[in-house]
Structures are given as C-alpha cells and as structure tokens.
Amino acid sequence: MQKNSELQAIPISDLESNWQILKDVSSNFIGSLSSNMFTYGLGLMLLDQTGLAISFGIDMVIAPIVGLLFLIPVGNLTDHYPHKAILSYSIFIRLFALIIFACFIDYFHGLSKLVPVIIFLIINAISINFSNTSYSAAIHELVNGKKIQKLSSLTQGSVSLSQILAAAVGIALYSIVGFDIFIYLEILATLLTFLILQTMHFHYGSSLDSSNRETSLSDFKFGLNYINQRKLIKYIITMAVLINFIFTALNLGIPFVIKTQLHLGNGPVGYLQSGIAVGTLGGSILMLLLPDQKWFTQKLLLPLLSLGVEFILLGSIFLGGLDLWQLSIVGTMIMALTGLTLSILNITVQVRLQKTVPSRILGRVMALLTTANTSVMPLGTLFYTFFFQKKFNGGYIFIVNGIIMFIYTAVLFPVLLKNIKLDNKYVE
After folding, report:
1. Rounded distance between C-alpha atoms, residue 69 and residue 73, angstroms
2. How would residue 17 be classed by pLDDT, with cut points 50, 70 and 90?
3. CB 185, CB 337: distance < 8 Å
4. What's the rounded mean pLDDT across residues 20-42?
5. Which CATH number is 85's domain given?
6. pLDDT at residue 375 greater than cutoff 50
7. What is the pLDDT of residue 88?
8. pLDDT at 354 over 80
9. What is the three-class DSSP state of 218?
C-alpha cells in the first residue's frame, strides 16, 4: 500500500490555512453554541409540555438510528461529490426545516408537540450526519498538512467552550423569554454558518473518486476492505465502541448517583458536567502546543489507560462519604482530567486519519467511525438504566467499568503497539 501522497498534491499556503482555520473555528463556535442552547431549550419545552423524562433524550435515540440507516449513502456520497456542495445542501435543508418548524410548532400542544419535534429531529440528524462526515473528509482540502492538528484542536476547543456557555445561557434565556427565541437564534446561526461556508475555498485536486463506480454496496465494501487492511483503524473503531458504551454510564449515572443515591441535589451535577467540558478545552489547547508528528504512540495509548483509572477514581469518590463541596471539587477535577484525556485521544485519532487515509475513501472511513460511536449509545443507555434502576450502588458500577476498561486496554497493549509500528508505513 502506498503512502497517501495525494494529501500533499495541492499546495495550500500557511496564510490561507490560517484564514481557513479562523473561518472554520468561528463557524463551529457559532453553530455549536446555538445548537447546544437549542437542545436545552427544546428539552425544557418538551418537559413542560409533556412531562416525559425522555424529553432530554429523544435526540439520543433518533440520531443513532438515522446514523445506521444512512451509513452507506453518507459515506459513499461524501467520497464521490464535492464536500462544499454536500455541506451547503445539508445546511440549507436544515435551515429550511428550522423555518418550517418555527411556523408550525405553536399549533401543537401537550403530547402532540412530539410530532413536529420528532420530524424535525430526523431531518436534523440526517443533515448533521452528512455535514459532520463531509467536514471530517474535507479538512485536508482546507489547510495544509502542518495545520491539520491546529485546526482539529481549535475546532474541538471552540465546541467545548460553546458547551460550557450553552447550559448557563440556555437555561437563563428559557426562563426569561421561552422556547421560540431558541428557534430564531438557531435560524440566524445556521444562516451565518452557511454564509461563512460560502467564503471558504476547498482544494479538491484529484481527491474525488469518480471512477469505477458500481453499486452503493460495492462502494461501501471497498471502504470496509480498506479498514480491514489497516488493522490499527479497526482496533481504534473497536475501542471507540467500548469507550462510548461505557461512557453512557456517565450521562445516566452521575445525575442518578448524586441526586438519588447521595441526595446532594443538582449543584454537584452541574459542576461535574462542566468539568468535562473544561477539561476538553484544556486538552485542545495542550494539543496545539504538542508537535503533531511526534509521540503518536504515547498520545494514543496513555489516554486509553488513563480512562480506566479515571472511572475507578470517580467511583471511589462516590463511595468515600464526601460532603457536597468535597464531592463537587474532587469530582470536577476528575471529570476535567477525563475531558482532557478524551480530547487528546480524539484529536490524535482525527489527525492520524486525516493524514494517512486516502481522500477518495476518507468519507466512508469517517462514516463508519462516527456511526460505530453513536449506534452503541442506545444499547448502553438501556444496559446502564437497568443496573441503576435495580438500586446497584453507582460507585461500584463506575469502578467495575474502570477496571474492565483498564484490563481491556492493558491486554491489547502489545497488539496495539505492533499495529502502530505496522501502520507507520502510511505516515508521510
């Protein structure tokens, strides 16, 4: 297998790369901030209208199902058509859906509110699926190879910052003006991201694979065969599935343990959830300072081992009899460390894929990775809901998860080291 020399076929200057980074980070911050605020507003509105506990989790069910159903067309279309066109169409369709949603949502009341919400969330999930996959496959078309890690780090940092701000701003705004303002803000933000996209220059070169096209299934099998040849990517996807499955315990378990088992109220929940976003932002800044060509093995394997330890530490503080402020401080520090670890791991994997996977197949690889990550979340939600509802002590659940993750990573350590060495032939 030859190195992915096509990624360097199109010269992009550092100056142009920096301008593209500025536009991309601005667009991501605007879109992520408004989207997260919209999610909070939508959840609060549904909770008020329907009284259903699932009000904040509908999208977590819809998005993975849509991801599985559209896995093949998303990957194939991303690899065969200009990424800017795909992004433009997907954002425009989302904008149109938002406008229709704004026009009709107030005609529904009570449980019937779920009808327009579910329809919009399906369209939204399809649009975001195409947008995220196309964006992931297009990074090397926006910046040169030296700037890929900088772009990935700043993009993830902007998303983390928006998550920190969105919760406080979203909840405060909903209490003052209600839900309608969130739709209008989301329409405005989507329009701004669309306009910013039009000013960005995508350097395609020969990256689009328009030859030897057969059926959609054949195209997709070609992507699977490539992943099968790159054993490291296959192991990364496998470990990503395990991590995302276990991490659903955080989303469910932290509020449940703190409020129901420890009876410490809402305060510590907010602190711990903010901690992971702060840690992710810190990891993004750290990755800006680290060279992207060095220490790949350490940046991949050490975070994988650390995640298991962090879960064990988190479970231990839930068993430690700490008071509200002790739990808030120590728990927030552990969650910040977890966010930092995840940030380093995500950026390391993203940069490796961007720099080594041929452009003509990158969309299918990214679609598989994204779908594998999200599709396991409903299963994890059902699995951990069962254990938490059965009154198992949440601290022990976290500790067992951490031990399983640590042992799994430790057992795979020699295999991962071997495959990292084999995979180095793909690095330029």
Report:
1. 9
2. confident
3. no
4. 88
5. 1.20.1250.20
6. yes
7. 94
8. yes
9. helix
Q: Would you state the torsion angle of the CA atoms of residues 116, 377, 348, 91, taken in this order, to the nearest 10 degrees?
A: -10
How many domains are contained in the chain? 1
Whether the pLDDT of residue 35 is over 80: the answer is: yes
Cβ-count burial of 411 within 10 angstroms (0-12 exposed, 13-18 middle, 19+ buried)? exposed
> Which is nearest to 88 in space by CA: 171, 197, 4, 200?
197
Nearest by Cα to 190 from 295, 61, 94: 94
Distance CA 186, CA 85 (A): 21
Question: Helix or strand or coil: residue 324?
Answer: helix
Domain range enclosing 158:
5-426
| Dihedral (CA of 71, 77, 79, 84) sign | negative
Q: Where do the H-state alpha helices sit in 357-393?
A: 359-375, 377-389
Tokens at residue 146, please?
A: 């030296």
CA torsion 9→14→18→20, rounded to 10°? Answer: -30
| Among candidate residues 36, 37, 58, 55, the one with its CA nearest the CA of residue 46 | 55
pLDDT at 5: 43
**What's the token pair of residue 379?**
């299963």
Q: What is the pLDDT of residues 151-172, one digit of tens each?
A: 888 888 888 888 778 777 877 7
